[in-house]
Amino acid sequence: MQTVAREGKLSPAGRVAFLSRTETIAAAHRLNSKSLSDAENKKLFGKCNQSHGHNYTVTVTVRGEINPISGMFMNIYTLQEHMQEAIMKPLDHKNLDQDVAYFADVVSTTENLAVYIWESLQKCLPAGRLYKVKVYESDKNFIVYKGG
Ligand SMILES: Nc1nc2c(c(=O)[nH]1)N=C([C@H](O)[C@H](O)COP(=O)(O)OP(=O)(O)OP(=O)(O)O)CN2
Ligand SMILES: [Zn+2]
């Protein structure tokens, strides 16, 4: 990288790139709202009102301006470390409803799981860095959350 800088072959400034990394978490849960009766929960959530598990696939996308010296805006290993702390450690091989305090009163839908991951990553990433959280609950279903 220093060689590139010495030779003056720097990337033009102001180029924004998007970096994504995917991890998989295995977790158990059930869809159940404390605001509803047992009968209402069964009617609304059907089979998903019973305990079951998923191998969730979580793709996190961050954005930033490419540093002309390093050729990147974030080392992928840095993103890996943040995902370990914010996603893998609290969620992998856990019962979301019982082991994760956030879901004590929040229904553990994939939507809310994406929000949890977004908020956890926001705590360790620089402002404006996080762009998108995509969570696959199964091969067929996924949620995209971009904050807000
Ligand atoms: N909007 C949402 N709807 C549902 C969610 C959710 O998170 N957000 N979650 C569920 C259940 O968790 C359920 O486990 C979904 O899994 P499954 O039925 O296995 O999903 P598939 O569509 O992949 O499987 P099929 O065999 O095709 O049914 C329900 N709804
Ligand atoms: Zn489920």
Automatic annotation (TrEMBL):
Its cofactor is Zn(2+). One of its GO terms (biological process) is tetrahydrobiopterin biosynthetic process. Pathway: Cofactor biosynthesis; tetrahydrobiopterin biosynthesis; tetrahydrobiopterin from 7,8-dihydroneopterin triphosphate: step 1/3. PROSITE patterns: PTPS_2 (PS00988). Pfam families: PTPS. GO terms for cellular component: mitochondrion. One of its GO terms (molecular function) is metal ion binding. Belongs to the PTPS family. Involved in the biosynthesis of tetrahydrobiopterin, an essential cofactor of aromatic amino acid hydroxylases. Catalyzes the transformation of 7,8-dihydroneopterin triphosphate into 6-pyruvoyl tetrahydropterin. PANTHER family: 6-PYRUVOYL TETRAHYDROBIOPTERIN SYNTHASE, PYRUVOYL TETRAHYDROBIOPTERIN SYNTHASE. This is 6-pyruvoyl tetrahydrobiopterin synthase.
